[in-house]
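Sample pair:
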Amino acid sequence: MSGFLRYRHGGREVLGWGDEAGVTPVAPVLDAAGLPPVEDLGELIAQGPVYRAAAVRVLGASARRHALAEVELRAPLAPSAIICAGANFDDHLRETSRERATEVEFFFVTPSSVVGPGADVRMVEGFTKYDYEVELAIVIGSPARNVSLDDALAHVFGYTILNDVSARDHQILLDDDGTSQGRFGAGKSFRDSSPIGPWVVPVEQLPDPDRLALRTTVDGELRQNNTMESAIWGVAELVSYYSRWVTLQPGWVIACGTPGGPALGSDPELRADPYKRDDGVRRGAYVQPGQLVECTIESIGTLANRYVR
């Protein structure tokens, strides 16, 4: 599967199109097709669906100019807002001893936390329970306010992968009376906590996102393994729901929540219930410095980042 990406080559950052076979810059291809030049994915999205569809047709047939190993991939876009849907998979709720909510969890992550594929996740001093969460990320393509389920997907530009890095010892505080306090700001929105990539696959190439398989490995060991079919709220439901509260803007990202398997679900200190799974997932500890986390979503690709001190 191919999509829009951003890469560094020859000392400059370039908006491109690519896949595992390689990348090609967008600007000359669009110029040859008589389409106006754009400098980043946000500008391309702003041009609207007709421009996007034409760009996909032209770029999809283009030869790759550089091998992937010759360039440094960066985050494919710089979203001005990231909305995160928590508690969206029953297996994650079960392992964290929570009940299914009647509505989607709703919190923001700061855009300044975004890093790209291959970038190091720099572990903040004092944070010890670093975790991983593979999530399908929806990229909004046009303004959406109070949209219906039937109309929701018409406002989507494409899809990518987000690893919702979490510092659980700062996110969850336990009280003496057995209750806990969740602090999403302290536990999720910090430096290098939102790797995104490797590219944004346009909706034309991914018409059924609610069936995609999701996997996470830590140094090659399987830690998460589920599909979007198991999500409580699907893509259209999330877009429609969030558009009731805010006007979704082009280039914004909605993260769809993570399935079971994060290290949090294996942490009895935080009152988790690490039940045995029969899908090959190994219950594991938090990520240690130097370990490589790979988040894979079917038909999109793999987002790989090493956690370092």
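DSSP finds eight helices and 20 strands in the chain.
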